[in-house]
Amino acid sequence: MNLLDTLLRCVGTLAVFLVLPLVVGQAEHKVMAHMQGRLGPMYAGGFHGWAQLVADGVKFAQKEDIVPAGADRRIFRLAPAVALLPYLLVLLVIPVGPNGLVGQAVDAGIFFVLAVMGIGVLGSLMAGWASANKFSLLGGLRTAAQLMSYELPMLLAAASVAMAAGTVSLPGVVDAFHWWWVPWQLIGGFVFFTAGLAELQRPPFDMPIADSEIIFGAYTEYTGLRFALFLLAEYAGIVVLCGLTTVLFLGGWHGPFSDSLGWLWTLVKTFALAFVVLWLRVTFPRLREDQLMRFAWTVLIPLALAQLALTGIVKVAIS
Amino acid sequence: MEWQPLAADPAAGSGYFDAYAAIGLLAVIGVLFVTVAFTANRLLRPVVNTPEKLLAYECGVDPVGEGWAHTQIRYYVYAFLYVIFAVDAIYLFPWATVFAAAGFGAATLVEMFVFIGFLAVGLLYAWKKGVLEWT
Protein backbone atom coordinates (compact mmCIF):
# COMPACT_ATOMS: atom_id res chain seq x y z
CA MET A 1 0.00 0.00 0.00
CA ASN A 2 1.55 3.23 -1.06
CA LEU A 3 0.34 6.56 -2.26
CA LEU A 4 1.28 6.12 -5.93
CA ASP A 5 -0.52 2.77 -6.13
CA THR A 6 -3.64 4.23 -4.54
CA LEU A 7 -3.50 7.26 -6.80
CA LEU A 8 -3.27 5.06 -9.89
CA ARG A 9 -6.24 3.01 -8.75
CA CYS A 10 -8.27 6.16 -8.14
CA VAL A 11 -7.41 7.64 -11.53
CA GLY A 12 -8.22 4.28 -13.15
CA THR A 13 -11.59 4.30 -11.42
CA LEU A 14 -12.24 7.82 -12.71
CA ALA A 15 -11.40 6.69 -16.24
CA VAL A 16 -13.77 3.73 -15.97
CA PHE A 17 -16.38 6.05 -14.49
CA LEU A 18 -16.16 8.33 -17.51
CA VAL A 19 -16.06 5.62 -20.19
CA LEU A 20 -18.51 2.87 -19.17
CA PRO A 21 -21.54 5.17 -18.72
CA LEU A 22 -20.91 6.52 -22.22
CA VAL A 23 -20.80 2.97 -23.58
CA VAL A 24 -24.13 2.25 -21.86
CA GLY A 25 -25.56 5.51 -23.17
CA GLN A 26 -24.51 4.77 -26.75
CA ALA A 27 -25.85 1.23 -26.37
CA GLU A 28 -29.15 2.73 -25.23
CA HIS A 29 -29.32 4.92 -28.35
CA LYS A 30 -28.70 1.99 -30.65
CA VAL A 31 -30.59 -0.75 -28.79
CA MET A 32 -33.70 1.40 -28.33
CA ALA A 33 -33.55 2.50 -31.93
CA HIS A 34 -33.34 -1.03 -33.28
CA MET A 35 -36.06 -2.29 -30.96
CA GLN A 36 -38.30 0.48 -32.31
CA GLY A 37 -37.39 -0.09 -35.94
CA ARG A 38 -35.17 2.99 -36.21
CA LEU A 39 -31.47 3.40 -36.89
CA GLY A 40 -30.45 5.74 -34.08
CA PRO A 41 -27.44 8.06 -34.45
CA MET A 42 -25.59 7.32 -37.71
CA TYR A 43 -23.39 10.34 -38.52
CA ALA A 44 -21.20 11.46 -35.61
CA GLY A 45 -17.79 9.79 -35.87
CA GLY A 46 -18.60 8.09 -39.17
CA PHE A 47 -19.14 4.48 -38.12
CA HIS A 48 -22.74 3.99 -36.91
CA GLY A 49 -22.62 7.23 -34.96
CA TRP A 50 -20.22 5.90 -32.34
CA ALA A 51 -19.12 9.42 -31.32
CA GLN A 52 -22.65 10.73 -30.76
CA LEU A 53 -22.24 11.07 -26.97
CA VAL A 54 -18.80 12.68 -27.35
CA ALA A 55 -20.43 15.24 -29.63
CA ASP A 56 -23.22 15.68 -27.09
CA GLY A 57 -20.61 16.28 -24.39
CA VAL A 58 -18.86 18.93 -26.46
CA LYS A 59 -22.21 20.61 -27.08
CA PHE A 60 -23.16 20.53 -23.37
CA ALA A 61 -19.81 22.04 -22.38
CA GLN A 62 -20.42 25.06 -24.64
CA LYS A 63 -23.98 25.78 -23.58
CA GLU A 64 -25.02 28.70 -21.46
CA ASP A 65 -25.37 28.08 -17.74
CA ILE A 66 -28.72 29.41 -16.54
CA VAL A 67 -29.64 29.67 -12.87
CA PRO A 68 -33.25 30.87 -12.50
CA ALA A 69 -33.61 34.21 -10.74
CA GLY A 70 -35.77 32.73 -7.97
CA ALA A 71 -33.58 29.71 -7.31
CA ASP A 72 -31.56 28.90 -4.22
CA ARG A 73 -28.34 29.49 -6.09
CA ARG A 74 -25.80 27.60 -4.03
CA ILE A 75 -27.86 24.43 -3.63
CA PHE A 76 -28.95 24.60 -7.26
CA ARG A 77 -25.35 24.65 -8.47
CA LEU A 78 -24.15 22.03 -6.01
CA ALA A 79 -26.86 19.47 -6.78
CA PRO A 80 -25.38 17.85 -9.95
CA ALA A 81 -22.09 17.14 -8.17
CA VAL A 82 -23.94 15.58 -5.23
CA ALA A 83 -25.89 13.40 -7.63
CA LEU A 84 -22.79 12.30 -9.54
CA LEU A 85 -19.92 11.76 -7.11
CA PRO A 86 -21.41 8.98 -4.90
CA TYR A 87 -21.46 6.63 -7.90
CA LEU A 88 -17.77 7.34 -8.47
CA LEU A 89 -17.00 6.33 -4.89
CA VAL A 90 -19.09 3.16 -5.16
CA LEU A 91 -17.27 2.17 -8.35
CA LEU A 92 -13.99 2.12 -6.42
CA VAL A 93 -15.06 -0.71 -4.10
CA ILE A 94 -16.72 -3.02 -6.66
CA PRO A 95 -14.42 -6.03 -7.19
CA VAL A 96 -13.71 -6.71 -10.85
CA GLY A 97 -11.50 -9.79 -10.81
CA PRO A 98 -9.86 -12.33 -8.49
CA ASN A 99 -6.54 -11.77 -6.66
CA GLY A 100 -7.27 -8.26 -5.54
CA LEU A 101 -8.38 -6.76 -8.85
CA VAL A 102 -10.48 -4.10 -7.17
CA GLY A 103 -10.07 -0.35 -6.78
CA GLN A 104 -10.02 -0.63 -3.03
CA ALA A 105 -11.50 -3.42 -0.94
CA VAL A 106 -13.51 -2.17 2.02
CA ASP A 107 -14.35 -4.46 4.94
CA ALA A 108 -17.93 -3.29 5.25
CA GLY A 109 -18.40 -3.19 1.47
CA ILE A 110 -22.13 -3.91 1.20
CA PHE A 111 -22.87 -1.45 3.96
CA PHE A 112 -20.68 1.26 2.43
CA VAL A 113 -22.17 0.78 -1.02
CA LEU A 114 -25.79 0.99 0.13
CA ALA A 115 -25.10 4.02 2.30
CA VAL A 116 -23.28 5.96 -0.42
CA MET A 117 -25.73 5.09 -3.20
CA GLY A 118 -28.49 6.66 -1.11
CA ILE A 119 -26.63 9.98 -1.17
CA GLY A 120 -26.88 10.18 -4.96
CA VAL A 121 -30.65 10.51 -4.72
CA LEU A 122 -30.17 13.54 -2.47
CA GLY A 123 -28.80 15.35 -5.53
CA SER A 124 -32.21 15.07 -7.23
CA LEU A 125 -33.92 16.19 -4.03
CA MET A 126 -31.66 19.24 -3.77
CA ALA A 127 -32.27 20.06 -7.43
CA GLY A 128 -36.03 19.74 -7.00
CA TRP A 129 -36.11 21.99 -3.97
CA ALA A 130 -33.59 24.60 -5.08
CA SER A 131 -35.11 25.24 -8.52
CA ALA A 132 -38.02 27.24 -7.08
CA ASN A 133 -40.24 25.69 -9.71
CA LYS A 134 -43.50 23.94 -8.83
CA PHE A 135 -42.88 21.07 -11.21
CA SER A 136 -39.36 20.60 -9.93
CA LEU A 137 -40.69 20.55 -6.39
CA LEU A 138 -43.25 17.89 -7.30
CA GLY A 139 -40.51 15.87 -8.98
CA GLY A 140 -38.30 16.20 -5.91
CA LEU A 141 -41.11 15.03 -3.61
CA ARG A 142 -41.78 12.05 -5.85
CA THR A 143 -38.07 11.26 -5.78
CA ALA A 144 -38.14 11.33 -1.98
CA ALA A 145 -41.17 9.04 -1.88
CA GLN A 146 -39.48 6.62 -4.25
CA LEU A 147 -36.23 6.60 -2.28
CA MET A 148 -38.07 5.83 0.95
CA SER A 149 -40.08 3.01 -0.59
CA TYR A 150 -37.38 1.24 -2.53
CA GLU A 151 -34.38 1.64 -0.22
CA LEU A 152 -35.84 -0.90 2.19
CA PRO A 153 -36.32 -3.89 -0.17
CA MET A 154 -32.84 -3.18 -1.56
CA LEU A 155 -31.38 -3.28 1.94
CA LEU A 156 -33.18 -6.51 2.84
CA ALA A 157 -32.13 -8.24 -0.39
CA ALA A 158 -28.50 -7.25 0.20
CA ALA A 159 -28.75 -8.53 3.78
CA SER A 160 -29.84 -11.88 2.40
CA VAL A 161 -26.59 -12.14 0.42
CA ALA A 162 -24.58 -11.10 3.48
CA MET A 163 -26.27 -13.95 5.37
CA ALA A 164 -25.48 -16.45 2.62
CA ALA A 165 -21.84 -15.43 2.42
CA GLY A 166 -21.32 -14.76 6.12
CA THR A 167 -19.53 -11.51 5.32
CA VAL A 168 -20.35 -7.95 4.27
CA SER A 169 -17.16 -7.56 2.22
CA LEU A 170 -17.82 -7.52 -1.54
CA PRO A 171 -14.75 -9.59 -2.56
CA GLY A 172 -15.65 -11.92 0.30
CA VAL A 173 -19.14 -12.40 -1.13
CA VAL A 174 -17.75 -13.31 -4.56
CA ASP A 175 -15.19 -15.67 -3.00
CA ALA A 176 -17.94 -17.52 -1.16
CA PHE A 177 -20.13 -17.82 -4.27
CA HIS A 178 -21.27 -21.19 -5.64
CA TRP A 179 -23.33 -21.69 -8.78
CA TRP A 180 -26.38 -22.84 -6.82
CA TRP A 181 -26.57 -19.42 -5.18
CA VAL A 182 -28.21 -18.14 -8.35
CA PRO A 183 -31.43 -20.13 -7.89
CA TRP A 184 -31.17 -19.81 -4.09
CA GLN A 185 -30.94 -15.99 -4.18
CA LEU A 186 -33.09 -15.54 -7.28
CA ILE A 187 -35.90 -13.67 -5.49
CA GLY A 188 -33.40 -11.46 -3.69
CA GLY A 189 -31.65 -10.68 -6.96
CA PHE A 190 -34.95 -9.70 -8.57
CA VAL A 191 -35.85 -7.47 -5.62
CA PHE A 192 -32.41 -5.84 -5.53
CA PHE A 193 -32.28 -5.16 -9.25
CA THR A 194 -35.84 -3.83 -9.42
CA ALA A 195 -35.45 -1.63 -6.35
CA GLY A 196 -32.17 -0.32 -7.75
CA LEU A 197 -33.88 0.58 -11.03
CA ALA A 198 -36.51 2.46 -9.08
CA GLU A 199 -33.87 4.37 -7.14
CA LEU A 200 -32.22 5.39 -10.38
CA GLN A 201 -35.63 6.56 -11.63
CA ARG A 202 -35.25 4.51 -14.78
CA PRO A 203 -38.36 3.58 -16.76
CA PRO A 204 -40.80 2.05 -15.84
CA PHE A 205 -40.13 3.75 -12.49
CA ASP A 206 -39.55 7.23 -13.93
CA MET A 207 -42.55 8.94 -12.35
CA PRO A 208 -40.32 11.65 -10.77
CA ILE A 209 -39.26 12.84 -14.22
CA ALA A 210 -42.50 12.05 -16.05
CA ASP A 211 -42.24 14.44 -18.98
CA SER A 212 -45.94 14.29 -19.85
CA GLU A 213 -46.96 15.55 -16.40
CA ILE A 214 -44.19 17.53 -14.72
CA ILE A 215 -41.91 18.53 -17.61
CA PHE A 216 -38.67 16.91 -16.43
CA GLY A 217 -39.19 16.83 -12.68
CA ALA A 218 -36.27 18.00 -10.61
CA TYR A 219 -34.09 18.65 -13.69
CA THR A 220 -36.52 21.03 -15.43
CA GLU A 221 -34.47 24.16 -14.81
CA TYR A 222 -31.07 22.67 -15.62
CA THR A 223 -29.13 23.40 -18.78
CA GLY A 224 -25.70 22.76 -20.22
CA LEU A 225 -23.02 21.05 -18.20
CA ARG A 226 -25.09 20.71 -15.02
CA PHE A 227 -27.78 18.86 -16.94
CA ALA A 228 -25.07 16.70 -18.53
CA LEU A 229 -23.78 15.75 -15.08
CA PHE A 230 -27.27 14.60 -14.06
CA LEU A 231 -27.45 12.48 -17.21
CA LEU A 232 -23.98 11.08 -16.53
CA ALA A 233 -25.10 10.26 -12.98
CA GLU A 234 -28.04 8.28 -14.35
CA TYR A 235 -25.84 6.16 -16.62
CA ALA A 236 -23.12 5.78 -14.00
CA GLY A 237 -25.91 4.61 -11.72
CA ILE A 238 -26.86 1.94 -14.25
CA VAL A 239 -23.25 0.74 -14.40
CA VAL A 240 -22.98 0.67 -10.60
CA LEU A 241 -26.31 -1.09 -10.11
CA CYS A 242 -25.54 -3.75 -12.73
CA GLY A 243 -22.03 -4.21 -11.33
CA LEU A 244 -23.38 -4.65 -7.81
CA THR A 245 -26.08 -7.08 -8.92
CA THR A 246 -23.37 -9.03 -10.74
CA VAL A 247 -21.14 -9.13 -7.67
CA LEU A 248 -23.87 -9.95 -5.16
CA PHE A 249 -26.17 -12.27 -7.09
CA LEU A 250 -24.44 -13.52 -10.25
CA GLY A 251 -21.05 -14.50 -8.89
CA GLY A 252 -18.94 -11.59 -10.17
CA TRP A 253 -15.78 -12.94 -11.78
CA HIS A 254 -16.77 -16.64 -11.58
CA GLY A 255 -16.87 -18.42 -14.93
CA PRO A 256 -14.64 -20.59 -17.13
CA PHE A 257 -10.94 -19.49 -16.98
CA SER A 258 -11.81 -17.09 -14.17
CA ASP A 259 -8.17 -16.92 -13.03
CA SER A 260 -7.10 -15.07 -16.14
CA LEU A 261 -10.41 -13.83 -17.53
CA GLY A 262 -12.27 -12.99 -14.31
CA TRP A 263 -12.51 -9.28 -15.13
CA LEU A 264 -14.06 -10.14 -18.49
CA TRP A 265 -16.79 -12.19 -16.81
CA THR A 266 -17.63 -9.30 -14.52
CA LEU A 267 -17.85 -6.96 -17.50
CA VAL A 268 -19.93 -9.39 -19.57
CA LYS A 269 -22.43 -9.95 -16.77
CA THR A 270 -22.61 -6.22 -16.02
CA PHE A 271 -23.34 -5.35 -19.62
CA ALA A 272 -25.87 -8.17 -19.96
CA LEU A 273 -27.74 -6.63 -17.03
CA ALA A 274 -27.37 -3.15 -18.52
CA PHE A 275 -28.98 -4.52 -21.68
CA VAL A 276 -31.91 -5.71 -19.55
CA VAL A 277 -32.20 -2.19 -18.11
CA LEU A 278 -32.49 -0.75 -21.61
CA TRP A 279 -34.86 -3.51 -22.67
CA LEU A 280 -37.18 -2.77 -19.73
CA ARG A 281 -37.30 0.89 -20.76
CA VAL A 282 -38.54 -0.04 -24.20
CA THR A 283 -40.95 -2.72 -22.98
CA PHE A 284 -42.90 -1.30 -20.05
CA PRO A 285 -45.11 1.78 -19.79
CA ARG A 286 -44.53 4.11 -16.86
CA LEU A 287 -46.07 3.05 -13.55
CA ARG A 288 -48.55 5.45 -11.96
CA GLU A 289 -47.45 6.92 -8.62
CA ASP A 290 -49.81 4.78 -6.52
CA GLN A 291 -48.92 1.63 -8.46
CA LEU A 292 -45.28 2.44 -7.88
CA MET A 293 -45.72 2.75 -4.12
CA ARG A 294 -47.94 -0.29 -3.87
CA PHE A 295 -45.42 -2.37 -5.81
CA ALA A 296 -42.67 -1.50 -3.34
CA TRP A 297 -44.58 -2.05 -0.13
CA THR A 298 -46.88 -4.92 -1.01
CA VAL A 299 -44.73 -6.90 -3.46
CA LEU A 300 -41.02 -6.21 -3.05
CA ILE A 301 -40.80 -5.98 0.75
CA PRO A 302 -42.77 -9.21 1.42
CA LEU A 303 -40.67 -10.93 -1.26
CA ALA A 304 -37.47 -9.68 0.38
CA LEU A 305 -38.64 -10.94 3.79
CA ALA A 306 -39.46 -14.33 2.25
CA GLN A 307 -35.98 -14.44 0.73
CA LEU A 308 -34.46 -13.71 4.15
CA ALA A 309 -36.38 -16.64 5.65
CA LEU A 310 -35.33 -18.94 2.81
CA THR A 311 -31.69 -17.90 3.09
CA GLY A 312 -31.70 -18.48 6.84
CA ILE A 313 -33.24 -21.95 6.62
CA VAL A 314 -30.97 -23.19 3.85
CA LYS A 315 -27.85 -21.71 5.43
CA VAL A 316 -28.50 -23.33 8.82
CA ALA A 317 -29.51 -26.61 7.15
CA ILE A 318 -26.22 -26.92 5.22
CA SER A 319 -23.92 -25.73 8.00
CA MET B 1 14.67 -2.11 2.23
CA GLU B 2 11.82 0.28 1.96
CA TRP B 3 11.01 2.26 5.02
CA GLN B 4 7.54 1.51 6.33
CA PRO B 5 6.00 3.61 9.05
CA LEU B 6 4.50 1.52 11.80
CA ALA B 7 1.05 2.93 11.18
CA ALA B 8 0.91 1.38 7.68
CA ASP B 9 1.16 -2.16 9.00
CA PRO B 10 -2.19 -3.81 8.14
CA ALA B 11 -1.91 -6.10 11.14
CA ALA B 12 -1.97 -3.07 13.40
CA GLY B 13 -5.43 -2.27 12.14
CA SER B 14 -4.49 0.49 9.72
CA GLY B 15 -5.96 -1.45 6.78
CA TYR B 16 -9.25 0.09 7.79
CA PHE B 17 -7.89 3.62 7.60
CA ASP B 18 -5.99 2.85 4.39
CA ALA B 19 -9.21 1.72 2.73
CA TYR B 20 -11.10 4.83 3.69
CA ALA B 21 -8.10 7.03 2.90
CA ALA B 22 -8.29 5.72 -0.66
CA ILE B 23 -11.99 6.60 -0.75
CA GLY B 24 -11.16 10.07 0.56
CA LEU B 25 -8.53 10.46 -2.15
CA LEU B 26 -11.02 9.45 -4.81
CA ALA B 27 -13.53 11.93 -3.40
CA VAL B 28 -10.91 14.68 -3.75
CA ILE B 29 -10.19 13.57 -7.33
CA GLY B 30 -13.91 13.59 -8.06
CA VAL B 31 -14.30 17.13 -6.72
CA LEU B 32 -11.29 18.18 -8.82
CA PHE B 33 -12.91 16.62 -11.90
CA VAL B 34 -16.12 18.57 -11.34
CA THR B 35 -14.16 21.79 -10.70
CA VAL B 36 -12.10 21.39 -13.87
CA ALA B 37 -15.24 20.61 -15.87
CA PHE B 38 -16.98 23.76 -14.66
CA THR B 39 -13.88 25.93 -15.16
CA ALA B 40 -13.65 24.72 -18.76
CA ASN B 41 -17.39 25.31 -19.11
CA ARG B 42 -16.97 28.89 -17.81
CA LEU B 43 -14.30 29.60 -20.44
CA LEU B 44 -16.34 28.10 -23.29
CA ARG B 45 -19.89 29.23 -22.67
CA PRO B 46 -21.66 32.43 -23.66
CA VAL B 47 -23.43 34.54 -21.02
CA VAL B 48 -26.45 36.31 -22.44
CA ASN B 49 -28.92 36.64 -19.61
CA THR B 50 -32.34 38.13 -20.21
CA PRO B 51 -35.12 38.40 -17.60
CA GLU B 52 -37.28 35.97 -19.58
CA LYS B 53 -34.53 33.38 -19.60
CA LEU B 54 -34.18 33.58 -15.83
CA LEU B 55 -37.89 32.93 -15.21
CA ALA B 56 -38.88 29.51 -13.94
CA TYR B 57 -40.13 27.29 -16.76
CA GLU B 58 -43.67 26.23 -15.99
CA CYS B 59 -45.14 25.07 -19.28
CA GLY B 60 -44.31 28.34 -20.99
CA VAL B 61 -46.80 30.38 -18.96
CA ASP B 62 -45.37 32.98 -16.58
CA PRO B 63 -45.18 31.40 -13.11
CA VAL B 64 -47.93 32.29 -10.65
CA GLY B 65 -46.97 32.76 -7.01
CA GLU B 66 -43.65 31.54 -5.76
CA GLY B 67 -41.95 28.27 -6.64
CA TRP B 68 -41.93 26.86 -3.14
CA ALA B 69 -45.64 26.28 -3.32
CA HIS B 70 -47.53 24.71 -0.45
CA THR B 71 -48.12 21.07 -1.19
CA GLN B 72 -49.60 18.38 0.91
CA ILE B 73 -47.10 15.60 1.48
CA ARG B 74 -49.38 12.63 1.83
CA TYR B 75 -46.75 10.07 2.54
CA TYR B 76 -45.41 11.19 5.89
CA VAL B 77 -46.91 8.18 7.68
CA TYR B 78 -45.01 5.70 5.64
CA ALA B 79 -41.95 7.92 5.89
CA PHE B 80 -42.08 7.01 9.57
CA LEU B 81 -42.70 3.42 8.58
CA TYR B 82 -39.56 3.53 6.44
CA VAL B 83 -37.44 4.97 9.22
CA ILE B 84 -38.58 2.26 11.64
CA PHE B 85 -38.00 -0.54 9.16
CA ALA B 86 -34.63 0.79 8.01
CA VAL B 87 -33.34 0.98 11.56
CA ASP B 88 -34.54 -2.58 12.07
CA ALA B 89 -32.83 -3.71 8.89
CA ILE B 90 -29.50 -2.20 9.97
CA TYR B 91 -29.33 -4.76 12.76
CA LEU B 92 -29.55 -7.55 10.19
CA PHE B 93 -26.06 -6.96 8.85
CA PRO B 94 -23.86 -7.65 11.90
CA TRP B 95 -26.14 -10.58 12.73
CA ALA B 96 -25.96 -11.91 9.16
CA THR B 97 -22.21 -12.38 9.33
CA VAL B 98 -22.28 -14.67 12.39
CA PHE B 99 -25.68 -16.35 12.56
CA ALA B 100 -24.57 -19.60 10.90
CA ALA B 101 -21.29 -19.84 12.82
CA ALA B 102 -20.65 -22.98 14.84
CA GLY B 103 -22.57 -23.06 18.09
CA PHE B 104 -25.48 -20.88 17.00
CA GLY B 105 -27.52 -22.90 14.51
CA ALA B 106 -31.19 -23.43 15.24
CA ALA B 107 -31.43 -20.86 18.04
CA THR B 108 -30.50 -17.94 15.78
CA LEU B 109 -32.85 -19.23 13.12
CA VAL B 110 -35.75 -19.01 15.58
CA GLU B 111 -34.59 -15.52 16.50
CA MET B 112 -34.57 -14.60 12.84
CA PHE B 113 -38.15 -15.73 12.42
CA VAL B 114 -39.13 -13.67 15.46
CA PHE B 115 -37.42 -10.67 13.84
CA ILE B 116 -38.95 -11.18 10.41
CA GLY B 117 -42.27 -11.86 12.13
CA PHE B 118 -42.13 -8.45 13.79
CA LEU B 119 -41.43 -6.76 10.47
CA ALA B 120 -44.20 -8.71 8.74
CA VAL B 121 -46.75 -7.97 11.46
CA GLY B 122 -45.77 -4.30 11.37
CA LEU B 123 -46.26 -4.24 7.61
CA LEU B 124 -49.61 -6.04 7.84
CA TYR B 125 -50.74 -3.59 10.53
CA ALA B 126 -49.82 -0.61 8.37
CA TRP B 127 -51.58 -2.24 5.44
CA LYS B 128 -54.72 -2.84 7.49
CA LYS B 129 -54.66 0.75 8.76
CA GLY B 130 -54.75 1.92 5.15
CA VAL B 131 -51.30 3.52 5.14
CA LEU B 132 -50.42 1.65 1.96
CA GLU B 133 -53.48 2.85 0.00
CA TRP B 134 -53.04 5.76 -2.36
CA THR B 135 -56.27 6.01 -4.29
Biggest β-sheet of chain A, characterized?
Answer: 2 strands, antiparallel
Termini gap of chain A: 36 Å
Share in β-strands of chain A = under 5%
Number of helices of chain B: 4
Structural class of chain A: mainly alpha
Radius of gyration of chain B (Å): 27 Å
**Rg result of chain A:** 20 Å
Number of helical elements of chain A: 12
What is the typical, i.e. mean, pLDDT of chain B?
75
Distance between the termini of chain B: 72 Å
Shape of chain B: flat
Strand-pairing-aware structural class of chain B: mainly alpha
Write out the strand line-up for the largest beta sheet of chain A, numbering strands in chain order. 1-2
Percent helix range of chain B = 55-70%
Describe the structure.
Chain B: Keywords: Cell membrane, Membrane, NAD, Quinone, Translocase, Transmembrane, Transmembrane helix, Transport, Ubiquinone. Chain B: GO terms for molecular function: NADH dehydrogenase (quinone) (non-electrogenic) activity; NADH dehydrogenase (ubiquinone) activity; quinone binding. Chain B: Its EC number is 7.1.1.-. Chain B: This is NADH-quinone oxidoreductase subunit A. Chain B: It catalyses: a quinone + NADH + 5 H(+)(in) = a quinol + NAD(+) + 4 H(+)(out). The complex is a heterodimer of chains A (319) and B (135). Chain A contains twelve helices and two strands, in the order αααββααααααααα. Chain A has helices at residues 3-35, 52-62, 73-93, 109-130, 134-165, 170-175, 181-184, 186-199, 211-214, 224-249, 258-283, 289-318, and strands at residues 95-97, 101-102. Chain A has a two-stranded antiparallel ribbon. Chain A has one domain (65-318). With 319 residues, chain A is mainly alpha-helical. The two termini of chain A are 36 Å apart. Chain B has 135 residues and is mainly alpha-helical. Chain B has two domains: 1-68; 72-135. Helices cover 56% and strands 0% of the residues of chain B. Chain B is built from four helices and no strands. Chain B has helices at residues 14-44, 76-90, 92-98, 106-128. Chain B starts with 13 loop residues before the first helix and ends in a 7-residue tail after the last helix. In chain B, 16% of the residues are buried. Mean pLDDT of chain B is 75; it is low at 1-14. The chains are: A mainly alpha (319), B mainly alpha (135). At the A-B interface, helix 1, helix 3, helix 4, helix 5 and helix 10 of A face helix 1, helix 2, helix 3 and helix 4 of B.
